[in-house]
Design goal:
alpha/beta, Four Helix Bundle (Hemerythrin (Met), subunit A), Rossmann fold, 3 domains, 8-stranded mixed β-sheet, 8 strands, 59% helix, 9% strand
Length: 447
């Protein structure tokens, strides 16, 4: 999301920090450019102005004191103020001393609310906080069906209008959302759930009827969290929507969806300053595990291309099979080396981390546009997997037997050109020789 903003900010700061001496005029000129960059990224005018004024006040003081390397000090000041703009510190979820805690998810239609409810449930389940999902949109049957399907995938209980109607004898009368949620919370208590996640009804725009229903649900179940699900791709509209919900029902936190998209980033940089409601989570993909805790300090580091190694470690720990990773590392440096079955396993481990661009973007010094610059095609890994799967078990264990006719058969089976099969075999052999060489050096040191 922050690709353009990140590139321009880091480029500007790099130019300033490379100068041996910084004058007050240099700083003020640089800050005028930073404000221009923020405005182009769709950050609200008042927020961009206040940000540059705070940076100016601190940066000019650094220059006057003639501190060592004022350029680096300026980078740190911009980082700190970006973190403050994003919420200053991580805001954890608030749970109830007597479970279950009720979390209301609110937002407009199309913001990704239902999918986010399932993502949040999956995350809480991993953290050993048993969740209970509630489909509280009584007017749109598709919303209940979608949530039920997602709940089934993550094996979490789900309660909706159909269950509520069955309890009332299937009268056919449209259920009341407030009664439905109240009944669902009672059911969750009996099932010893730690958290009840309520997917409330959305509309195409904020209206009085929706807000009145939310207020009545809030009064009935006293939620610990009212989480606004906002689509980061909507730019400053997300800020306007956040203000509307906050003024009506008192939003306690925000979940930004589609943070992996191509939007300019203004919503993420403006929403906390406009509402005071912290961003608690960010959706970073379509998979049900693609929901990250939002940390303003780490996000500021990502924007300034300082990486986010903590997020990378968390992603690896969550996605990678440790036992298989240890086995592969031992095979790679053994005398025999890896075969193509091992290569296929390693490929699946890499795919489990998600899009390569987002993984590489967490490394320090690698820009947000790395995927575009390196032409990382997400389909490439799938093509490699198809080629290996088109081989026989013997061919995978002994790639040297793969002659011309076998290569042609593998190409037909995988639907890829023979040239790609040749390239894969050549690159695999080079990698295997390199790893075996490293293993020999390792064994010599041990002796």
């Amino acid at each position: 999301m922050f690709a353009a903003l990140s590139e321009r900010l880091t480029g500007l700061l790099r130019r300033l920090s490379s100068r041996g001496v910084l004058t007050e005029e240099d700083v003020r000129e640089g800050l005028r450019e930073i404000r221009r960059v923020l405005l182009e990224a769709d950050v609200g005018y008042e927020i961009a102005r206040d940000f540059t004024e705070r940076v100016a006040e601190r940066a000019v003081g650094v220059v006057r004191l003639k501190q060592v390397n004022p350029g680096q000090q300026l980078v740190k000041i911009v980082h700190d103020e970006l973190a403050a703009l994003l919420g200053e510190r991580q805001a954890p979820l608030q749970f109830s001393p007597l479970p279950p805690a009720v979390f209301l998810l609110v937002g407009l239609q199309g913001s990704g609310k239902t999918t986010t409810a399932a993502k949040l449930a999956a995350r809480l389940k991993r953290e050993n906080k048993p969740p209970f999902l509630v489909a509280a949109d009584v007017k749109r049957p598709a919303a209940e069906e979608q949530l039920r399907q997602l709940a089934s995938r993550i094996q979490v209980p789900c309660f909706g209008p159909a269950d509520y109607a069955a309890l009332r004898g299937g009268s056919g009368v449209e259920p009341d959302a407030v009664g439905l949620v109240r009944t669902a919370v009672e059911r969750a208590k009996r099932e010893r759930a730690a958290v009840v996640i309520v997917d409330t009804a959305g509309r195409m725009q904020i209206d009085r009827e929706m807000m009145e229903e939310l207020r009545r649900i809030k009064e009935a179940v006293e939620p610990r969290e009212i989480l606004l699900v906002a689509d980061a791709m909507t730019g400053q509209d997300a800020v306007r929507i956040a203000r509307g919900f906050h003024e009506s029902v008192g939003v306690t936190g925000v979940i930004l969806t589609k943070l992996d998209g191509d939007a300019r980033g203004g919503a993420a940089l403006s929403i906390y300053g406009a509402t005071g409601a912290p961003i608690k989570f960010a959706g970073t993909g379509e998979r049900l595990d693609a929901l990250e805790a939002f940390d303003p300090v780490r996000m500021a580091g990502r924007i300034l291309q300082q990486g986010d190694v903590v997020a990378l470690v968390e992603k690896v720990e969550r996605a990678v099979d440790r036992e298989e990773a240890v086995r592969l590392s031992r095979r790679a440096v053994s005398k025999k080396g890896m075969d193509l079955t091992d290569f296929l396993s390693a490929l699946k481990q890499v795919q489990s981390l998600g899009p390569l661009e987002s993984v590489l973007g967490l490394l320090p010094g690698i820009g947000a546009r790395v995927g575009r610059d390196l032409k990382l095609d997400p389909k490439r890994l799938k093509h490699l997997e198809a080629i290996v799967l088109s081989m026989t078990p013997e061919e995978r264990s002994r790639p040297e037997i793969i002659n011309g006719s076998r290569r042609a058969r593998i190409a037909r089976g995988s639907g890829r050109p023979v040239q790609e099969v040749n390239a894969l075999l050549k690159q695999f052999e080079q990698m295997r020789k390199l790893m075996k060489g490293m293993g020999r050096l390792q064994r010599k040191r041990i002796r």
